[in-house]
Amino acid sequence: MEVPSSIICVDCGGLCGRLSFEEPDEGFQSGDVVAYRCRDCLDRWDIVIEDGDDDF
Q1: Residue 34 lies in domain
Q2: pTM of the model
Q3: Which of 15, 16, 30, 49 has the fewest CB atoms within 10 Å around its CB?
Q4: Residue 32 forms part of a structural domain
């Protein structure tokens, strides 16, 4: 499953980089928790990946 390396912070609009690493042979799977950290406000975002999450 494709998971973006960065997202936009809901709180401040800054760029959040992915903290989580995908499994080498499996990648990210439905049900995995992917963590991001905002470069500007340092908030952490944990997102549960589910099938059909194409609107990241």
Answers
A1: 6-48
A2: 0.84
A3: 30
A4: yes
